[in-house]
């Protein structure tokens, strides 16, 4: 195990030391500047090649001193007065070529391999002594320590030798850094071996020694660069994993981590290493997770961990605050915000793990308040305000989910008796915390407007100020009133809406400042949201769907007045929430939907949202066509279709929308409504040019066609099943076949000239099929009564079929001749062809007596008449003209002969 650990630490040291590669080019640039007699520049020229006499790569900028990192961790040190002279010399120098293979081997790889070889050599020597039994455990540990010390001394000696050679202004070279990294790795392995392999050290001593090695590594990084910094921070946070005891001491652990965190933050602040600060914060958060299991009974040490880390981040990392690096006014800096947000996340996890105990919630509230204060003082941490708002909402959502709502159900009225409840303490604490959070976020969100030259700062404050009070109000309502009617919560929502409305009015009168229009729109949206919640709290459960839909329409209207893209997306998001709401419970209000046809809760639950989304889409289209508009248009069409389908199903099934079967009447109504909506969308899309309307029209039309073929003609066809039809003329056949035929024909004319001919002809064919089906079934109703599936057809019934089909063909032909419609004439040919087939295939074998003769005689006369019509009217021979008087006939053309 010792050999594997030693090898792993050596490899880690080599990998980390590899990061110092960029310093070689800088060293070469400064060395060449010295040899050329020029002053050494304070920072290497980034874009110009220094004078060089060898094949060396141009200097690369140091990662830890880029301008971006300087803005986030510390200010760059000022350039020396001699820097311009160095740049002048660099201007005249030729561009340096990239280093060749031999130079890479001789100046870089040899050093790296040498450092690894030194570390492995020591480890292999110890292994050899163990295998040969030459040295005891104590001597091995002593030699390991001496070897580590020798490497550290060698690293310092090489660094000082460079200083003696008048290279003090140069950055530390690779060789000292690698020697020092190898020394710290050997030291770390030696201490761990003395503890884990030989039991020379008790856990407390080993813990302290390993921590000192890690701190020493961080300190050495001040001289030797980022390689040792990475090794030190990883070793420091890995030490508690390597050294463990039977009973964990969280106080000792978190005090140690606080020391490591402070050293790492200080080093990051001094050397301008953003990556080191982020790594430290991430590792500190990871150390919060193992202690969450015991957070319910032991909160103090965990609270100390997040508070200490938060305080150190505010002290050393947040730009523009205390000892943090300076930054230009108004800039939101990601590291500053991420550091605070990470420790806030740790505090939120402690609250959840402790079952929302009062001390944990108080600690979380204190850190949230501190975040608001820090962001108010330093704009660099403004993004942490948004994170704090989101975490507050999640913490209270967790409280609602984990709680026992049945103990706190209050169907309305005031809120007495909370103190007598077993959960009175957490409820009271959460009520107070929610009030403070709501006032704090809303107040700061309003007061922050106009304070920053960066538009993002006031927008984040406004978004947090609107979101947090609304989210907390919903959480408290869900926990205390169990989503039931509650007048007190409705009053609070109205007060909140008034506050947001007043803020909107006051901010609208101010001079235009960065971010102010977006903030005004956010507060206006918050006003609409609070009013929607007031309706939800004061009325029944189903009004939540209506309130959110009305809020979407209101937001669309605000986006029309204030053209802010965010508001369009907010409208689409609200529409998506309403769609998800009906997916959870299609009846909106459950069993309370009612049994009255049409005028029931479905009309309100689907009709009002459909109207709201249509109105919102009209307003949004005035500002252009984009994804949010298409989402709202889709929601409008969906709710319109669902309103029709749900009302039909409700009316046909006596209020039971969950009935598992359908009948002829229900399918017929759905097909007719779908065809009518498809016709309407076809007309609408010609004006709106919306792809949503286009696709929806096609989808509805296809659905209607499938419903007609498989539903009406097959599954619900009364000729196949014992369905009761009703009266002779006014019956379900009129609704199930005649009306769909008319609507399909109208749809075919609606798409004529605007879609492919095959599309319109297909629905014309559907209209023909449904019309013939209606005529056929209606004749069977005349002969068989209200149940069509009983009894065999008589000769009179068969003859009536032929006569009716033939009459339909003649009527279609007449319509085609009068209106010059080729489609009608072709339909006539199809119907007459079917009649001919029936006459020869069915009538010839089944009809007897006079019916057979009349069938064929009538068919023959009609066919002859049709032929005569085609010859005389449609396809008259060329060169002939209608019959006219002799005086009106023109003379034959010259040169032609008469017959």
Please sum up the structure shown.
The chain has 899 residues and is an all-alpha fold.
Report the sheet-strand fraction: under 5%
As residue ranges, the low-confidence spans are: 1-10, 43-97, 101-110, 163-174, 405-425, 878-899
How helix-rich are the residues, as a percent range? over 70%
Morphology call: elongated
Element order, helices and strands? HHHHHHHHHHHHHHHHHHHHHHHHHHHHHH
Number of helices: 30
N-end to C-end Cα span: 122 Å
**Main beta sheet: strand number and arrangement?**
none
- Helix- and strand-based class? mainly alpha
**Gyration radius, rounded:** 43 Å
**Rounded mean pLDDT score:** 74
Topology, number of strands: 0
Q: How are the elements arranged and paired?
A:
Elements lengths: L1 H16 L4 H14 L31 H6 L10 H10 L8 H32 L4 H28 L9 H23 L6 H22 L1 H17 L7 H22 L2 H13 L13 H17 L17 H20 L4 H20 L5 H20 L21 H24 L8 H25 L6 H22 L7 H23 L4 H19 L3 H20 L16 H21 L5 H26 L11 H25 L2 H25 L16 H19 L6 H28 L10 H24 L3 H25 L3 H25 L25
Helix pairs in contact: 1-5, 1-7, 1-9, 5-6, 5-7, 6-7, 7-8, 7-9, 8-9, 8-10, 9-10, 9-11, 10-11, 10-12, 11-13, 12-13, 12-14, 13-14, 13-15, 14-15, 14-16, 15-17, 16-17, 17-18, 17-19, 18-19, 19-20, 20-21, 20-22, 21-22, 21-23, 22-23, 23-24, 23-25, 24-25, 24-26, 26-27, 27-28, 28-29, 28-30, ...
């Amino acid at each position: 195990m010792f050999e594997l650990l030693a090898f792993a630490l050596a490899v880690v040291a080599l990998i980390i030391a590899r990061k110092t590669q960029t310093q070689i080019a800088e060293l070469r640039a400064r060395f060449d500047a010295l040899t050329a007699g020029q002053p050494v520049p304070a920072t290497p020229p980034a874009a110009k090649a220094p004078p060089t006499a060898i094949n060396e790569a141009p200097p690369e900028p140091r990662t830890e001193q880029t301008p971006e990192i300087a803005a986030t961790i510390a200010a760059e040190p000022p350039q020396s007065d001699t820097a311009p002279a160095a740049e002048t010399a660099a201007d005249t120098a030729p561009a340096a070529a990239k280093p060749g293979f031999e130079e890479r081997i001789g100046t870089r790889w040899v050093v790296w391999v040498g450092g690894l070889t030194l570390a492995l050599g020591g480890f292999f020597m110890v292994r050899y002594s163990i295998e040969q039994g030459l040295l005891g455990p104590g001597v091995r540990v002593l030699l390991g320590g001496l070897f580590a010390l020798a490497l550290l001394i060698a690293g310092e000696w090489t660094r000082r030798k460079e200083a003696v050679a008048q290279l003090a202004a140069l950055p530390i070279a690779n060789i000292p850094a690698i020697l020092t990294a190898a020394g710290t790795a050997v030291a770390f392995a030696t201490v761990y071996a003395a503890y884990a392999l030989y039991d020379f050290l008790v856990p407390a001593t080993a813990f302290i020694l390993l921590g000192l090695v890690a701190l020493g590594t961080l300190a050495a990084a001040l001289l030797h660069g980022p390689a040792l910094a990475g090794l030190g921070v990883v070793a420091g946070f890995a030490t508690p994993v390597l050294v463990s005891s039977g009973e964990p001491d969280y106080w000792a652990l978190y005090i140690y981590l606080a020391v490591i965190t402070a050293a790492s933050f200080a080093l990051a602040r001094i050397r301008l290493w953003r990556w080191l600060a982020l790594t430290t914060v991430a590792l500190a958060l990871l150390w919060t997770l193992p202690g969450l299991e015991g957070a319910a009974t032991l909160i103090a040490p965990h609270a100390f961990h997040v508070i200490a880390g938060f305080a150190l981040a505010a002290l050393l990392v947040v730009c523009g605050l205390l000892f943090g690096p300076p930054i230009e006014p108004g800039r939101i800096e990601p590291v500053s915000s991420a550091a605070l947000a990470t420790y806030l996340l740790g505090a939120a996890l402690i609250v959840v793990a402790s079952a929302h105990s009062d001390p944990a919630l108080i600690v979380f509230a204190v850190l949230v308040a501190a975040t608001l204060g820090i962001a108010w003082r330093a704009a660099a941490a403004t993004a942490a305000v948004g994170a704090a708002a989101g975490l507050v909402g999640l913490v209270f959502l967790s409280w609602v989910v984990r709680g026992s709502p049945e103990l706190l159900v209050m169907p309305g009225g005031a809120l007495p008796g909370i103190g007598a409840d077993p959960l009175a303490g957490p409820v009271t604490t959460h009520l107070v915390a929610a009030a403070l959070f709501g006032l704090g976020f809303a107040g700061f969100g309003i007061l922050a407007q106009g304070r920053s030259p960066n538009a993002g700062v006031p927008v984040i404050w406004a978004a947090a100020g609107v979101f947090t009070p609304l989210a907390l109000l919903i959480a408290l309502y869900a926990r205390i009133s169990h989503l039931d009617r509650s007048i007190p919560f409705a009053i609070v929502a109205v007060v909140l809406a008034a506050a947001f409305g007043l803020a909107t009015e006051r901010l609208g009168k101010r001079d235009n400042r960065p971010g102010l229009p977006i903030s005004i729109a956010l507060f206006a949206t918050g006003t609409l949201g609070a009013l929607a919640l007031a309706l939800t709290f004061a009325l029944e459960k189903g009004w939540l769907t209506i309130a959110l839909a009305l809020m979407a329409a209101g937001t669309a209207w605000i986006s029309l007045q204030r053209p802010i893209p965010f508001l369009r997306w907010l409208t689409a998001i609200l529409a998506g929430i309403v769609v998800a709401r009906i997916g959870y419970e299609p009846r909106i209000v459950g069993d309370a939907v009612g049994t009255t046809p049409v005028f029931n809760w479905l009309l309100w639950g689907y009709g009002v949202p459909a109207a709201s989304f249509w109105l919102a889409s009209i307003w949004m289209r005035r500002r252009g066509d984009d994804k949010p508009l298409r989402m709202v248009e889709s929601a409008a069409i969906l709710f319109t279709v669902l309103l029709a389908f749900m009302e039909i199903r409700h009316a046909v099934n006596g209020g039971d929308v969950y009935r598992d079967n359908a009948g002829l009447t229900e399918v017929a109504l759905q097909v007719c409504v779908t065809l009518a909506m498809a016709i309407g969308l076809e007309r609408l899309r010609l004006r709106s040019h919306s792809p949503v309307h286009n696709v929806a029209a096609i989808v509805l039309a296809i659905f209607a066609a499938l419903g007609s073929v498989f539903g009406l003609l097959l599954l619900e066809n009364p000729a196949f099943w014992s369905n009761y039809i009703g009266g002779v003329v006014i019956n379900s056949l009129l609704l199930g076949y005649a009306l769909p035929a008319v609507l399909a024909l109208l749809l075919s004319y609606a798409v004529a000239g605007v879609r492919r001919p095959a599309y319109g002809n297909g629905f014309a064919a559907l209209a023909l099929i449904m019309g013939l089906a209606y005529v056929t079934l209606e004749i069977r109703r005349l002969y068989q009564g209200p149940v069509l599936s009983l009894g065999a057809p008589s000769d009179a019934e068969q003859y009536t079929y032929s006569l009716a089909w033939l009459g339909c063909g003649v009527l279609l032909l007449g319509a085609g001749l009068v209106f010059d419609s080729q489609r009608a004439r072709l339909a006539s040919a199809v119907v007459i062809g079917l009649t001919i087939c029936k006459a020869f295939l069915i009538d010839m074998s089944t009809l007897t007596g006079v019916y057979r003769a009349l069938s064929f005689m009538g068919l023959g006369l009609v066919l002859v008449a049709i032929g005569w019509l085609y010859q005389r009217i449609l396809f008259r021979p060329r060169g002939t003209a209608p019959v006219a008087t002799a005086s009106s006939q023109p003379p034959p053309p010259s040169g032609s002969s008469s017959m």
